[in-house]
Amino acid sequence: MAVQQEDIYERARLSRDPRFDGRFFVGVRTTGIYCRPICPANSPRRENVRFFPSAAAAGEAGYRPCLRCRPETAPGSPAWTGTSATVRRGLRLIAGGVLEDSDVERLAERLGVTSRHLRRLFTRHVGASPLAVAHTQRLHFAKRLIDDTTLSMQDIAIAAGYGSVRRFNDAFRKAYGRPPSELRRVGDSRAEAGVRPGLTVRLAYRRPFDWAAMLRFFNRRATPGVEAVAGDAYRRTVRLGEQAGVLELRPDARDGYLLLSLRGLTTQVLFEAVQRARELFDLDAPVDEIAGVLGRDALLAGPLRQTPGIRVVGAWDGFELAVRAILGQQVSVAAATTLAGRIAARYGEPLAGAAEGDPALLFPGPERLARARFNEVGLVRQRAATIRSLAAAVLKGEIDFDFAQDPAAFCERLTSIDGIGEWTAEYIAMRVLKNPDALPASDLGLRKALGTDRPATANELKSRAEEWRPWRAYGAMLLWNSLSGSGG
Questions:
Q1: Catalytic residue positions?
Q2: pLDDT in the model for residue 43
């Protein structure tokens, strides 16, 4: 680690700067413990600490997680910051649980590199191997469930992917020096903090975070029957493997956290649900770095002040979002929402056992829409044909929504489908692949925001947005938020 970087980390450690929480970890040589930079314990002397770029690196070096500052509750590390594109995509795949049912060689194959090169990249950028990252992720997830839920140790072992209670116990004895049952605090603050028993967990996010802006975005685009915004909560139906149920997110009583609740789903899918919810609400975005880049453009400085901590809203299901993007071509947001609701009502699957007030339709998949006639839905013939072509391409394996793929190649494949243009492809890459540099440059709202007496051209927007890299998607979101009725 460069001396200059260590100096920055040292100042952040001494000041307990919350902006650096989750960006690095502090190993204390005298205790063998690693902490978050905001740990409230007395700060050790400089010569007694080591800095690590990730919790996995600290664990691989033999340090144990601190029980006071709880490294597992730190906001997630912004996966793309300061890393290669390969590492960024690899971290997202690991976060999605890819190493639970495959090995590093298959992970490397998906990323288009050799396993040796992948290990070398992870060592350089993350400070730990892919397997160490996956192990730490599993351990931290299990620790959060121990502290924040009333789930049994057996259920937690299953949810965290340990396979057996014995492996679960062995991992905790190795990491914490004690069995997991001894780490569950008696008389803790779970009930006081509003964490309900069952499948409800806290999700930490990087501040600032404008939950109200997120809800406004979803409220205008919520597909009737599939999604709903009620009060301060967002709900939607979800399918995870063979299971289906309802996901709900709302603010926690503690600042810096959301509460994720699952209904009709078991602990077997909890880990995947947590990771996908984090992506959906972009909880790990490096908001300070984004603001530092975008704030240099006078056009974005005002919207950035109005919406600090801008996020790019993700998508729960890639195919569903792609259909919605096609529906949104050349019509208003409200019209696209109406059409999506009609398609869900006609071709979607009712969710058995849905509670009163919850969405109760599962959005139809490609197998349902590949042959759909879309009669009495209100779709023009060309849009209907495009959706059928997309569905057929997905079923044939010609199009997939794996975020490990190269965004440019993904957009090229999408635009080969008749009726899908650059705007649609870039918008899907922005929200499904979570490409932070995607830019739907032909969007009329964005071009109007840039123009004066006339809308700017797509090329003029691209030229202006060069200084927004690598955060052009966030620049687009800022401009959409500053307009009324525009965007996606």
A1: 35, 443
A2: 92
